[in-house]
Specification:
The structure is a homodimer of 252-residue chains. Chain A is α+β, with helices and mostly antiparallel strands. Chain A is 23% helix and 26% strand. Chain A has five helices and eleven strands; from the N terminus they run ββββαβββαββαααββ. Chain A has helices at residues 56-68, 132-136, 155-172, 186-197, 203-212, and strands spanning 12-23, 26-33, 43-44, 47-49, 85-92, 103-111, 127-131, 140-141, 147-148, 217-224, 232-237. In chain A, the strands form three sheets. In chain A, strands 1, 2, 3, 4, 5, 6 and 7 form a seven-stranded mixed beta sheet that branches. In chain A, strands 8-9 form a two-stranded antiparallel ribbon. Chain B binds a DNA duplex (30 and 30 nucleotides) through helix 5.
DNA sequence: GTGTTTATCGTCAAGCAGACGACTATGATC
DNA sequence: GATCATAGTCGTCTGCTTGACGATAAACAC
């Protein structure tokens, strides 16, 4: 088939980001307020058009840096830097998902440690970390009493898919460490699991499990009391990416 | 931002299909021979452009029907029909993946029972079930002595990702039944696992595991001797989609 | 009948998970 | 400084699941 642009319909391709973090014991996603129609004034996921010479992962990393200042952690480089985990999530292409034109959005999932206040072009009021339960409830009032409008476009579905991916993936991988600072304690890691899954875990069994899994955690030698109580050993993420046997999510 | 087509670069969007089945104890993928440049004469995955009014899943289901005659099993309809399992796999958008133009391909994964001979527009010589190891080796000779050329475009990567998805997903879901006919025996299901994972499983432990997992298998009452030996009970897939605890893939 | 093939049931030991007791080491409070 | 609250860490015990494997059952081929 020769190059014939009339042979296929043109699409706009965007990347949208589900950036998750754990703040105050709650799983939160980054939301930005839309400045233009459609859905003007409503909250949405950060994202933007893929440029003509850009790979999808590059576009996602660029948007992530623009919105949060985070560098994406290239998974092909095993060196543990401070970058966020970034992976492709899914692609959304309903013909009516954007009323203006035909847009296919390649959603990406980013996991980041707790960050300073978000920025969106320097305007803090137009970006916030929102608890995912608040974003996913169709209507009602948020914790601060502000009425909650549904997310723009199909972004509620995308957030839901991203949260589900994160919830299942920390079961059988060491990805939960992506929510932690470079050095962290077993208790901090446990609170990540508790926030993402929304359950309480037994501290003793959790400690036995994570310290007993080879390659999951590497002690750095230091200790900290930043959580109060007895000083806790500090660890960094080990090289293992797959947990076998997996961490079991409690039922019900 | 008003609708300004010059504000974003136009993309072509395609769907490509990784259609897997188990034939003669080997995991096979459907490959079609390309009739036009680029990569003319080389094997590739079936696929095509997404139409202007089509959802991505619709486009994938349409391509699947065109290439194999299979109807996609809509996961929102729990009725067990004879359709194939179809799910989105990942999206590939390297700027240079198609030398003609900027193409973003939304790959889908389909799992089907063993089928009669494939067809590609009625021409059997242009479609075949190829063992995935054969497709994935970069060069060399296939089982029939025919020299093996790498798949067109980035399709080897897509097949690799699809196979890995299938291998991991049958661990913790009942998806392996998608490779089986509507009624099947425990031994047939075990041979699916063995072919997909490329390992031998203990028949006794496998039998205990699958029959002991509630909702996985439902006995139909019938028996069959089509595999030889003692008659085996026939089952159909139960309603359970998640296996807990999962089926463990042997190491090494 | 004998052998072969496949299916199915049972047994046993090792390992892991969940429940939970006990102890340790810090900071906060009186 | 004693006491308390908080968080971390080490053990123990019980039940369940797994992996290895013996034994039996029911068909077909000869």
């Amino acid at each position: 088939m020769p190059y014939d642009p009339s042979a296929f319909p043109p699409f706009a391709v965007t990347v949208d980001l589900v950036v998750l973090t754990v703040r105050r014991h709650a799983l939160c996603a980054l939301a930005v307020r839309r400045g233009e129609p459609p859905f003007q004034g409503r909250w949405a996921l950060p994202g933007g058009f893929v440029r003509a010479d850009e790979d999808l992962a590059q576009a996602a990393a660029r948007e992530l840096a623009e919105e949060t200042g985070l560098r994406a952690h290239d998974p092909s480089v095993p060196a543990q830097d401070n970058g966020a985990h970034l992976e492709q999530l899914a692609t959304y292409g309903d013909p009516k998902r954007d009323p203006r034109m035909r847009v296919v959005s390649v959603a990406h999932l980013a996991l980041a440690p707790d960050l300073p206040a978000p920025r969106a072009g320097g305007d803090a009021s137009n970006a916030r970390w929102a608890p995912v339960e608040e974003l996913l409830q169709q209507t009602g009032y948020g914790r601060d009493g502000e009425p909650v409008a549904p997310l723009a476009f199909d972004h509620a579905q995308i957030v839901s898919d991203g949260v589900e991916r994160a919830r299942s993936k920390i079961e059988y991988s060491s990805l939960a460490t992506a929510f932690c600072p470079p050095q962290f304690t077993v208790g901090e890691l446990r609170r990540v699991y508790e926030a993402v899954w929304g359950v309480a875990l037994d501290p003793r069994n959790f400690h036995r499990k994570v310290t007993g899994t080879p390659g999951f955690l590497v002690p750095t030698g230091g200790t900290t009391t930043r959580q109060g109580g007895r000083p806790a050993q500090l660890f960094r993420a080990g090289g293992a990416t797959l947990l076998n046997p997996p961490m079991l999510r409690p039922e019900v």
